[in-house]
Amino acid sequence: MQIDEAQIASELIESTREVVKAGSELLEAAVRAQTDRKSHNQNNIKYRNDPTWANGLISSSKNVAGCMLMLVRACNQSVRGDIEEEAIIALASQVASATAQLVTASRVRADPNSQSQRNLDVSAKTVARSTDNLVKKVKNVSQAHESMEDILPSGTNLKAKLEQQMAILRLEKELENARKQMGKINRDDYRS
Prior knowledge:
By secondary structure, the protein is mostly helical. The chain has helices at residues 5-40, 51-80, 85-107, 115-151, 158-191.
């Protein structure tokens, strides 16, 4: 069983293109939804201008674009072998999360039955499908690499087993610390 690295890189790049294309369509749909929202609410009298709501859609759009940019960079690094698959999976999750925030922000004071809102929902679902597809491809690549490692002959002496167990324990400790750090970051984001 031979792994074709060029084919894998090509599939990864194509999946990334699909995510970026879906994200671009999502951002365009968000702009149309914002325009519709402004025209729909033009005659409404506001109690006061609230910059939080006014900038919610803008900041959500910037967040989607930023997450996609990081995802593209990570995929490029992965093709060169400079980054692990887990980073791409985490970034794809961030794109999905940012997309959900964008959809939520676009619904504030908007007509939920408008065509622009329906288009935004369709675009968000397309982003979700394309990120899921990317994650599946990355996981398939990872599994293919693991199956190749299983085929390779290896000595199973006690020292190698102990070293592997120690490596697993170190990784589990790093994972626990990373989860604690992520929780702290989330709490800090919530407070600000």
